[in-house]
Amino acid sequence: MSFTIKFGTDGWRGTIAEEYTFDNVRRCAQGFATYLQSQGKQDEWVVVGYDKRFHSENFACAVAEVLAGNQFRVYLTDGATPTPVISYSVVEKKAVGAVNITASHNPPVDNGFKVRDEHGGAIPPEGLMEIEAAIPDSVSAVQKLSFGEAKEMGRVTLFDPAPAYLEQISRLIDLQPIKDAGLTVVVDAMWGNGAGWFTRLLSGGKTRIIEIHNERNPIFPEMSRPEPIQPNVDAGLAATLRHNADVLIITDGDADRLGVGDERGKFIDQLRVYGLLAYYLLEVRGERGPIVKTLSTTKILNRLGELYRVPVHETGVGFKYVAPKMLETNALIGGEESGGYAFRNHVPERDGILAGLYILDMIVRLGKKPTQLIDLLFEKVGAHYYDRIDTHFTGDRDLREQLIKDAQPRTIAGLAVTEKITVDGYQFLLEDGGFLLIRFSGTEPIIRVYTETRHPDKVQAILKDGLRIAGIE
Q1: CA 256 – CA 68 distance, rounded (Å)
Q2: Is the pTM for the entire model greater than 0.85?
Q3: 354-366: pLDDT as tens digits
Q4: Both 374 and 404 in a single domain?
Q5: Which residue in 377, 397, 404, 466 is a FRET match for 390, CA 20 to 30 A apart?
Q6: Are residues 153 and 230 in the same domain?
Q7: Is residue 5 a part of any domain in this protein?
């Protein structure tokens, strides 16, 4: 019996050489081709790109062969390419979608299969379900051309996606002031697709870019996975102090997420970074427009929405919810707790490169160091404190989820519970405007417990109560 492929929040990921095999990747590609055909998009162009993980370029070629065999035309990137660059290529090439071979921030043993729509954004949940349903049970049902034949027939075309993306960046931000500022910026590419991009964008001036982890190494030394959170970022934070740098910019394995470290070598959590980016667009650039946020991200955004009189829309967790809402509302910014941020006049896709440039521009325009930017933000909205615990669990998931569903705590860590929201996971709103959120991973036996609160002394107590509600002591 063939392996059953299940799509999570962003596509499918699996362990290389176990479930993630060439045959199963081809089956996924056939499901995507069938889905596009059902949308009336036969004989159109599809972008295919990949990251620097083990065999990614060869898995991408396998996808191109299947799409070509189903009468699609393929633009295949000529090298490992950041996810936001792939997404922008969909728009620039007027393609009907994209396949991206990447496991993003997963451990080194994994690889993945991401799909994107004609806007370069995540496909909504109902579309993912259709793709999943269209995946054939056997590779024998897959139609494909050999790579050489597909190229010869003009069904597969190699292309360099960088020039068009760089031109787009120049429309969104004036890079010259950053180049001239004389900053020292450490960039941690986490052995991934972000390597070289900040150097390319910001060289030629007084600002100095120092890159680390900028070669291909699919075992990701000095980190457990290329995810821009601690302890994975500790080597980058140490490099920031060693070079007496002004800021640390971190991109994850496929460069769609951003992490930031301050001038003191301390990590700035993703919720505060999202608050900074929204404040930058609203206050520094004077722009206006809706904000889209997932339930798991910061209430700083709700406060900014009140102060600047812009609507704030909350969605389920994942860009499959954020991207459609951004398109629907013409949002100024959209983002999630994991460090993914998207921007208006670009693509409804996380872009760690552009987000990093916006942080640098904010530093230059306001003449403030990262710690001072946080102080400025908190002067505006009040201090917020965040943390998260991911823990493995054993036993029946349904029974554990029922336990959380039935929980009706009056207080959590001494704070009154004002509301329970079950849109995506189980969120308990607290009297101080903060929250406790408990969610299950869509791909692993992991429970994620998040909190944000105005009380720094209650962060760990809230997380502990969250674990207790989930039946984990």
Answers
A1: 27
A2: yes
A3: 999 999 999 999 9
A4: no
A5: 377
A6: no
A7: no
